[in-house]
Amino acid sequence: MKTMKYQKYAAYPTVALAARSWPDNTITQAPIWCSVDLRDGNQALPVPMNVEEKVSLFQLLVSVGFKEIEVGFPSASATEFAFVRRLVEDKLIPDDVTIQVLTQAREHLIRKTFEAISGAKHAIVHLYNSTSRLQRDVVFRKNREEIKAIAIEGTALVRRLKDESGNRGIRFEYSPESFTGTELDYALDVCHAVMDSWGASPDEKIILNLPSTVEMSQPNIYADRIEWFCRHIKQRDAVLISVHAHNDRGTAVATAELAVMAGADRVEGALFGNGERCGNMDIITMALNLFSQGVDPELDFSDLPRVREVYRRCTRMDIHSRHPYAGELVYTAFSGSHQDAISKGMKAHAISQNGLWEVPYLPIDPEDVGCSYEAIVRINSQSGKGGMAYVLEKDYGIQIPKWMQPDFAEAVQAVADRTGTELSSEQIHDLFHSEYVKLKEPVSLKKCNISWDDSDPLHPDEEATLISCIVQMKDREFIFKAQGNGPLDAFVKGFIRESGLEFSVEEYAEHAIGHSARALAIAYIKIVCLDGRLSFGAGIDSNISLASIKAIVSALNRLP
Ligand code: KIV
Ligand code: ZN
After folding, report:
1. Which of 316, 391, 453, 536 has its CA 20 to 30 A from that of 356?
2. Atom of ligand 1 nearest to the CA of 179
3. Which domain holds residue 466?
4. How many C-alpha atoms does 1 have within 13 Å on its Cβ side?
C-alpha cells in the first residue's frame, strides 16, 4: 500500500480549558437562527440567483419562520444591490423579520451598504475582516495591530452611519473571518476593540459571529473555543455570540450543536447546507435534530417537499437522496429486516397510548415533514419476506400467511436478481398473480358445482358436501363427483381418486379482500405429496369455497 503524505498536515491546537462545562449541557431551546442562503449560499452557486429567484427564496425563508435573513452583499454587485432595494421598496420584509447585509470593512463598501438598506425598518449590518494568522501573513501582509485597526475603523464608520440615519432598527454584527485559523487571545482582543468601537451595551447588543470559515478541527475543539470565548469576553450581556460553521470535515451540524451547548446564542446556516466548498451548516438538519429530541425548532419544516422544490428551482442545486431528513430515500427501507421492523413498529405505534414516536429505523415520523408512508418499503433483491408481505397487505389487502411468505419471497428475489432493479408495489402484485392465481397448466378447473346434503341434522359435518367438477389435466379431461366434509375436502378426495396423484393439505388460510358485499375472498394453501414434493398455491374468487379449490389447483400447478 502506498502511504499518503499525511506529514504535510499539522494537528490543530487544542484549547487549554479547565473544567469545560459544555459536555454536560443539553439543548433545550432553539437558538436564534439566521439564514445565509441568499448571501453565503448564493455566492457559492455556479449560477448565482437572479433577483426573481432571490425573491422566491426569501419568501420561502420567511414562510418557514426565519426572523433574521442575510439577504446579500449589496456592495458587491448590481444584482445584490437591486435585490435589497426590491425587498425594501416593494415592502416584502415583514415587520418581524430583520434583513442582514454583509460588507467588508472598507469605507466605500460600507457606504454603499447603507444606501442599499435605506428605508428598511430593521437591518443588521454585518462587517467582517479576516483575522487568521495565515491571511494576515500571506494575503494582507499586515500585523495584528493593523488588522485590528481595520475592524475598529470599519465598526466606527458603521456606528456613525447608523447614527446619521436615525434608524434605531439597525443592529451590528462583526465577524473575525477565518476565526478557526485565528489565535483565540487575538480574536478576543479584536472583538473587545470592536465592542468598544461600537459602544456595545445590554441595550444595544453587538452580534459577535465566530465563524468556522474553514472547518479545521473536531467539533469538540470548536466547542472548547466557544466556551473559552464566552468565559473571557467582557460584558457578556452586551453580546450575542453567533456561530457560522462550514462543513469541510463533514461535521458542521455537530460543530454548531456543540457550540450551542458551549454558550452560542445564535446560529447561521443554510438550507440543505448550501454554501462555499462543502457548504454551510445545514439548518434543516440542525432544526430537525432538535425537533427529534422534543425541542421546538422554531422553524416550520412540516412541508419539506415544498422547501425542496423552491430550493432546487432557485439554486439549481441537487439534494442528495440520502440527505438527512430531506432526501428522497430517507424514509425508505430496502433491507428485509428493516422493512419487517418498520412494519411491526408502525402497527405498534398505531395502538400505542403514550403519543411518542417510536418506530425502529425512523427517527422521526415522515408525516411530520410532509413525507408519506407510501415510500417506506420498497422491494429489491436485498428485501426479505416481511417487505413484500407489507406492500401486498398495505396496497392490496393481501395478507400472505407467514408459512407462505418465504415461498413468495423467493419468487420476488428471483425477479429482482434477474432484473437488478427495484420492484414497484404494482409489479409485486402482478407477480403474485402470475406466480399463483393465474396458473392454468397443467391443471385447470373447467367447472365446479358445490351442493350440500343436510338430510342428517344430527351429523351436520360428516361428508355432507357434494362436489361435481370438470378438470383438464394436460390433454386429458375428467369429470368427477365426490363427497367431503367441505368443498376443499371433497375436491381433494375426488381429484386424488381420478388423477392418482396422492397429496395432503398441510396448511390453509383464507380472508376477504375488501369490506363490501362485493368483496373477494382469497385462500392460501400448502400441499405435500406422498413422494415428498411440496407446493404452495393461492386462489381468488368471490366465493370462498371456489377460492379454496382454486388455491389447490394453483398449488398443483406449481408442483416441482
Ligand atoms: O464563512 C465565513 O467566515 C463567512 C463570514 C463572512 C462570516 O461567511
Ligand atoms: Zn461562510
Report:
1. 391
2. 3
3. 443-557
4. 3
Distance CA 76, CA 56 (A): 21
Instruction: For residue range 234-244, list pLDDT tens digits in order.
Output: 999 999 999 99
Instruction: Name residues whose C-beta falls within 8 Å of residue 15's C-beta, 6 or more positions apart in sequence.
Output: 184, 221, 224, 225, 228
Is the distance from CB of 378 to CB of 428 less than 8 angstroms? no
Mean pLDDT of 460-484: 88
Distance CA 413, CA 399 (A): 19
Are 59 and 166 members of one domain? yes
Question: Do 245 and 199 share a structural domain?
Answer: yes
H-helix or E-strand spanning residue 330? none
Instruction: State the pTM of this model.
Output: 0.78
In whole angstroms, how far apart are CA 421 and each of 143, 376, 386, 415? 61, 17, 18, 9
Q: How far is the CA of 268 from the centre of ligand 1 (A)?
A: 10
DSSP string computed for 69-85 = EEEE-TTT-HHHHHHHH
For residue 124, tell me if it sits in a domain.
yes
178 pLDDT tier (thresholds 50, 70, 90): very high
Q: How many Å separate Cα 286 from the centre of its chain?
A: 12
Q: Report how far residue 420's alpha carbon sits from residue 409's, in angstroms, rounded to the nearest whole number.
A: 15
- 13 in a domain, yes or no? no
Ligand 1 atom, smallest distance to 128 CA: 6
Tell whether 163 is covered by a domain: yes
Q: What's the whole-number average pLDDT of the chain?
A: 94
* Residue 199, phi then psi, degrees to nearest 5: 80, 45
One domain for residues 67 and 143: yes
196-208 pLDDT, tens digit per residue, is 999 999 999 999 9
**Does residue 272 contact residue 326 with C-beta atoms inside 8 Å?**
yes
d(C-alpha 54, C-alpha 68), whole Å: 15
Task: Pick the atom of ligand 1 nearest to 36's CA.
Answer: 8
Q: Is 41 in the pocket of ligand 1 (CB under 6 A)?
A: no
DSSP string, 152-170: HHHHHHHHHHHHHHT-TTE
pLDDT, one tens digit per residue, over 280-327 is 999 999 999 999 999 999 999 999 999 999 999 999 999 999 999 999
The 3-state DSSP class for residue 137 equals helix
C-alpha span between 152 and 194 (Å, rounded): 5
Out of 93-97, 415-419, 435-439, least confident range:
415-419
Rounded distance from Cα 493 to ligand 1 centre (Å)? 83
Q: Is the CB of 126 under 6 A from ligand 1?
A: no
Last residue of a domain, one of 435, 453, 474: 435
Segment 119-140 shows an average pLDDT of 98
Bridge-based pairing of strands 68-72 and 98-104 is parallel
